[in-house]
Design brief:
30% of the residues lie in helices and 24% in strands. The chain is α+β, with helices and mostly antiparallel strands. The chain folds into 3 domains: 124 residues, Transthyretin/hydroxyisourate hydrolase domain (Immunoglobulin-like), CATH 2.60.40.180; 72 residues; 129 residues, Glutaredoxin, CATH 3.40.30.10. β5 and β6 form a beta hairpin. The longest helix is centred in the middle third of the chain and has 18 residues. The radius of gyration is 22 Å and the shape is globular.
Length: 357
């Protein structure tokens, strides 16, 4: 499957609009534990990554805040920033006052109680369920998309859950495009989603500027560029230290659903061939504030090898730039001499491994 440049990795900050209509006030408020005196800001976002700032406030000593709006809520994608944390959600435009209760330490996992918005509640429950029960197949991901309560929610879930493999899910993207255009005709959301599909189709048929078709900066037979980065405990680990072993270089992240679904197979192969000289070197593209999630994902997925590293720079990760990583998961199989022997060995990892062990 041809790789797709990710449109879905820097997504979404988003939230409302302001106006008092017929004397009815519109606001978002809440009580957030461990958020005393932190600034709160509200934004609305779109599929083209543009955002509109809608209001600011400050939590009091008890974590209470309120942001009053000048206009009614639009149906749309939203985010609420509380300190360094962001809470992403979807509103259907019928809301007047949305009330959120939660803890700052878990709010980005959708561990919240919401009143005043059926759409917000629906989306929060869906995301909470996905965090608790990782998707194991493309069919599960497509089924999860269908649980979205509105066409906009289903379109957004499509980008979140199917975006990394958009080439093989183009039918799903087009179905959501048709549904969104019918539900929200003439809106920026509908037009942006259509433009997104056009860009995805262009990427499927055109090489990246300056590159040969199906090529990247790293090719079979090249010496793998070295990587030296901190592990979760701060110890620097280097790819070159594994010279003499066959190594799977795996670019992944805790937030990447396809990566998490691929991990069990990598673990299985690792345990089977570790004693024969096979190692895994995992480079995480987690965010600057994502160290705890990175560590938690390593434990949850049973990634028992020692070589986990990250500079916690998200898509600005230095090794990702060197290796031309534009979407994840992205893997490279490296031979005992330090040279690349296979690109993206996933379903055929064991077969490729046996060729060089």
């Amino acid at each position: 499957m041809k790789k797709i440049n990710s449109f879905f990795t820097l997504f979404l900050p988003a939230f409302a609009i302001f106006f008092a209509c017929n004397g009815q006030s519109h606001a978002i408020k809440g009580t957030i534990s461990n958020a005393a005196n932190l600034q709160v800001s509200l934004d609305q976002a779109h599929f083209d990554r543009s955002t509109v700032a809608l209001g600011k406030g400050t939590c009091d000593a008890n974590g209470k805040f309120e942001i009053k709006l000048e206009k009614p809520f639009d149906e749309g994608l939203y985010s609420l920033s509380i300190g360094a944390k962001k809470l992403y959600f979807i509103l259907d435009g019928k809301e007047t006052v949305v009330d959120i209760k939660g803890d700052l330490n878990t709010i980005d996992r959708m561990d919240v109680a919401v009143t005043g918005s059926e759409s917000f509640t629906c989306y929060a429950n869906l995301i909470k369920g996905l965090i608790q029960n990782q998707l194991k197949s493309a069919e599960e991901a497509k089924a999860a998309v269908q649980k979205g309560c509105t066409p906009l929610m289903r379109a957004f879930l499509t980008t979140q859950l199917l975006g990394q493999g958009a080439g093989q899910f183009m039918d799903e993207f087009k179905a959501r495009e048709k549904e969104l255009a019918a539900a929200m005709p003439g809106t920026k959301y509908a037009s942006d989603f259509s433009n997104l599909i056009v860009q995805l189709q262009q990427q499927l048929t055109q090489p990246q500027p300056g590159a040969e078709p199906n090529s990247g900066p790293i090719q079979i037979g090249m010496l793998a560029p070295d990587i030296s980065l901190p592990s979760p405990n701060g110890k620097t680990r280097s790819l070159s230290d594994l010279r003499g072993k066959v190594v799977l270089l795996d670019f992944w992240a805790s937030w990447c659903g396809p990566c998490r679904r691929a991990n069990p197979h990598v673990v299985e192969v690792y345990k089977k061939y570790k004693s024969k000289g096979f190692e895994v070197f995992s480079v995480s593209l987690d965010r600057p504030d994502g160290k705890d999630k990175w560590i938690e994902a390593i434990k949850q997925d049973g990634l028992v090898w020692d070589n986990h590293v990250s500079d916690l720079k998200f898509w600005d990760s230095a090794p990702a730039g060197v290796y031309g990583v534009r979407s994840i998961p992205k893997t490279f199989l490296i031979g005992k001499d330090g040279k690349i022997v296979a690109l993206d060995p996933r379903d055929n990892l064991e077969q490729e491994l046996l060729k060089v062990l």
